[in-house]
Write a structure and sequence with these properties.
Elements lengths: L31 E6 L8 E6 L3 H4 L5 E8 L8 E4 L9 E4 L4 E4 L5 E5 L2 H15 L3
Antiparallel strand pairs: 1-2, 1-7, 2-3, 3-5, 3-6, 4-5
Length: 134
C-alpha cells in the first residue's frame, strides 16, 4: 500500500515531525514566523519571531537562526515591517528589525506562517535601514 504524502499541520513546524530525520536547512526558511518560549522568564511566556537568516546559513549545520521579534506596531519606523492575519497572526503587528537575536533552531517548532514575496522585499529593506547597509 502506498503511503500518503505528509501534510504539515498549521500549528506545528515542519521540523518537528515524529519519526522523520531532520534534514539541515531544508525546512526553516527566511520569512517563516514561529512562536518561541521566552528563556528569561518574563511576563510573556512566548514571543513570535520571524527568521531573517539568509537561506545559505539555514542550509548549513549551524544550530542557530537569526530572528527578529514581532511586536505591536510602534509608529511606522523604516526598520519595521507591518504584518497581520495574512501571515497567520491574530492581530496587526510589526517585525522590529532593530532587535535581532540568535535563536536555537531546536526552539523553532511552533510554526505560525510565512511572509509573502512583497513582505520579504519589505523585510530586506527594513534590515538595510536597521543595519545601515547600502
Amino acid at each position: 500500500m502506498a503511503s500518503k504524502p505528509y501534510k504539515v499541520p498549521r500549528h506545528r513546524s515542519p521540523v518537528a515531525r515524529e519519526g522523520v530525520a531532520l534534514r539541515w536547512g531544508s525546512q526553516i526558511r527566511r520569512g517563516d514566523l514561529y512562536r518561541v518560549k521566552q528563556r528569561d522568564g518574563g511576563a510573556k511566556r512566548s514571543r513570535i519571531v520571524v527568521v531573517v537568516s539568509r537561506n545559505a546559513h539555514l542550509a548549513s549545520r549551524c544550530s542557530t537562526a537569526i530572528c527578529a521579534p514581532v511586536y505591536a506596531p510602534r509608529g511606522e519606523l523604516a526598520s519595521e515591517v507591518a504584518v497581520g492575519t495574512a501571515e497567520g497572526l491574530k492581530r496587526t503587528s510589526a517585525i522590529l528589525c532593530d532587535v535581532l537575536t540568535s535563536v536555537p533552531r531546536a526552539e523553532l517548532t511552533d510554526y505560525i506562517g510565512t511572509l509573502g514575496p512583497a513582505k520579504l522585499t519589505a523585510l530586506r529593506a527594513a534590515l538595510r535601514v536597521a543595519l545601515e547597509v547600502d
